[in-house]
Design a protein that fits this description.
With 592 residues, this protein is α/β, with parallel strands linked by helices. It is built from 21 helices and 14 strands. It binds one RNA strand of 77 nucleotides through helix 2, helix 15, helix 16, strand 14 and helix 18.
Length: 592
RNA sequence: GGUUCCGUAGCUCAGUUGGAUAGAGCAACUGCCUUCUAAGCAGUAGGUCUUUGGUUCGAAUCCAAACGGAAUCACCA
């Protein structure tokens, strides 16, 4: 049964029968905490047309609902707000339906494929906090879409070539003294990142020297020998020069080994890897196609452009005069490739909001080229993670490293857990497993509870909380429920059949209401690509259960049916909490 | 300068398509462990929703302007 649907239909009927008003959409909202009731219907909009007082309208509709809907127990009218209370028997039958549904939380199959591209790192430096937000977001959105009934392809387009990669390579060649991850004990991505920073250091010195000779800032930046050498290296790479390619392959392998380790710790995975070294030449035929279709035009120097001034944008280069690609050229080609590979109806790009303009242009081009998948393309643009000191900058060493942060979180989890001393009988493996679960729960929840679109602040001085609106709080609620269920098992209480009850505690009713909302929230989160909605839901559910936990005793209850109901109720709540935070990529411990 | 986004408690954030007295957490203060895990629960205090106009029964939400902040405006990716 869909309570909302029943109420909406009943309200429509009331409006029609009592006031001869036919309304096709009735909007219900959750009742505010301070008032009695679960759903609220606002009658203000009808006051004027019907020339009745809000109170009279509310009472008339409320009375009608009570008599005819079959599910309304009481109602109250405050000003123009009709607050509706649903009967306990209705909540109980809702609870039964949820219990019986093995796939609760999995929406019907949509028979559509959607691609979520995320992570997409550069192979010249290790991952940092910003990447964590990207990866957690992408992974979570993929889970949420799968729960919405889509077939999901998680893709990673690795930027493994280009001038920035050559910078690391060059610095390594010049200053590396043959270091390897093995010889230094450094993770491969960190070792390569060290040389990216090294490059920048020497490059800056050169710039200063040139400026001292009287060159302008811009000239100095362009003429610094190191940069010129890096550009030459890129050409060598593009020409397939053996030595350069070998160095590139060696260093890339180091980075990939490092990334894989980090991905594993993060708990993210991919179904399809694309590498720019394989895709960077794509898109040139698309440029030809665009020229014949008249979407693009060629300037005298031979460069190819698109004019988007009628769309409020500028002219944008899509192919250089020497015939080489730019970023957007390969993105056009890659979009075609992805579609050819998976024939998906939606393609989500999880990329930071600094690239808003790029994707705006890209999608407009795809549209103008008449691609069938154009309307399914979506840039999931998320805000930057800022530090109290401002923006993170790799080259200036002001980044929060992903590996470091995750390790610190594990340490914090260890300290917190040991202070509480609840797991002294754990083996060290079990304990380590728990620390990781809690650490990643805290970190993921912290990054995902915020609306993806908004930029957010991370203060490294203040460790991420384990209390309040946090991942561990939700995990703790699950652990509590697990504990109860263990005890029930010891006592040999069967949860096979549900007992018949005639009433509910207020806290139980609130939890059942929240349980009934789970499918809606999954749909909302899927439509908005917003894991934050699921995070908020999981928190609300855990909070409501904890209230029940404190107000209602299970094993001290003498009436056996009540004990069995409360156990079944706890079990379903635990399962739903688990399912909800699994959508965030967060796991649950059975004890903590 | 053009374009886009943002401005809510001391701090970090919620706030559905306009609805009631603007909500959580942290930090501060009060209670609650002889009872299923106190990483919890209940409560107190904390607000000119940046400002000024407008739209209407009603605005944190929509419109306009101002102020403050961010991103972007590369033949980089």
């Amino acid at each position: 049964m869909n309570i909302e649907k029943v109420l909406q239909d009943s309200i429509k009927a009331a409006l029609l029968q009592k006031f001869e008003v036919s309304e096709n959409e009735i909007i219900l909202q959750p009742t505010k905490k301070d008032f009695e009731g679960t759903y609220t219907f606002v009658v203000f909009p009808y006051v004027k047309t019907l020339r009745k007082s809000p109170v009279e309208l509310g009472n008339t509709i409320g009375e009608f609902l009570k008599e005819n809907s079959g599910i309304v127990s009481t109602y109250n009218v405050v000003q123009g707000f009709l607050n509706i209370s649903v009967s306990d028997s209705t909540w109980l039958s809702i609870f039964k339906e949820i219990s019986a549904d093995k796939n609760f939380g999995q929406l019907p199959d949509k028979n559509e494929t959607v691609m979520v591209e995320y992570s997409s790192p550069n192979t010249n430096k290790p991952l940092h906090l910003g990447h964590l937000r990207n990866n957690f977001l992408g992974f979570s959105v993929a889970q949420i879409l799968a729960a919405n009934g889509y077939k999901v392809v998680k893709a990673n387009l690795v930027n493994d070539r280009g001038i920035h990669i050559c910078k690391s390579m060059l610095a390594y060649q010049k200053f590396g003294k043959g270091e390897t991850p093995e010889s230094t004990g450094m993770k491969g991505d960190h070792l390569v990142g060290k040389y990216y920073v090294e490059f920048d250091k020497h490059y800056k010195t050169e710039i200063e020297a040139l400026k001292a000779q009287g060159l302008s800032e811009d000239e100095a930046k362009k003429q610094a020998p190191l940069l010129i050498e890096a550009q030459e290296m890129l050409l060598k790479w593009e020409n397939g020069e053996t030595e350069t390619v070998a160095l590139w392959e060696k260093m890339n392998e180091w980075v990939f080994a490092g990334f894989n380790e980090t991905y594993k710790k993060m708990g993210v995975s991919f179904d399809k890897m694309y590498r720019e070294s394989n895709t960077y030449l794509l898109g040139k035929e698309t440029v030809e196609e665009g020229l014949t279709k008249g979407v693009f035009f060629k300037k005298e120097d031979g460069s190819v452009w698109i004019d988007l001034t009628d769309e409020g944008l500028d002219q944008k280069l899509v192919l250089r005069k020497d015939g080489t690609s730019v970023y957007i050229t390969q993105d056009m080609g890659t979009a075609d490739l992805k579609f050819k590979d998976f024939n998906m109806s939606k393609s989500i790009y999880v990329v930071g909001n600094e690239q808003d303009y790029h994707f705006d242009v890209l999608f407009k081009i795809i549209k103008k080229l008449g691609r069938s998948y154009a309307d399914g393309c979506f840039h999931l643009s998320y805000g930057m993670v800022d530090l109290p000191t401002g923006k993170m900058k790799s080259r200036e060493g002001t980044v929060v490293d992903a590996d470091d942060l995750m390790s610190e979180m594990v340490e914090t989890a260890r300290e917190r857990t040991n202070e509480l001393g609840k797991i002294e009988d754990f083996t060290s493996e079990e304990a380590e497993e728990l620390y990781r679960t809690l650490a990643m729960g805290a970190l993921k929840y912290f990054l995902l509870k915020v609306d993806p679109k908004k930029r957010m602040l991370f203060n490294p001085q203040e460790s991420i909380d384990f209390q309040g609106n946090t991942g561990p709080f939700i995990q703790y609620t699950f652990a509590r429920i697990s504990s109860i269920l263990r005890k029930a098992e010891q006592l040999g209480i069967s949860l096979e059949t549900l007992p018949e009850l005639n009433g509910l505690h207020e806290s139980e009713q609130e939890v059942i209401y929240l349980l009934s909302q789970f499918p809606n929230r999954i749909a909302d989160a899927g439509r908005e690509y917003a894991p934050s909605l699921i995070a908020q839901y999981a928190y609300d559910l855990a909070k409501a259960y904890n209230r029940f936990y404190n107000e209602v005793s299970i094993f001290n209850e003498t009436e056996e049916d009540l004990v069995r109901f409360r156990l079944a109720f706890s079990k379903i709540t635990g399962e739903t909490i688990q399912k909800a935070i699994a959508l965030l990529g967060v796991g649950v411990p059975s004890r903590m």
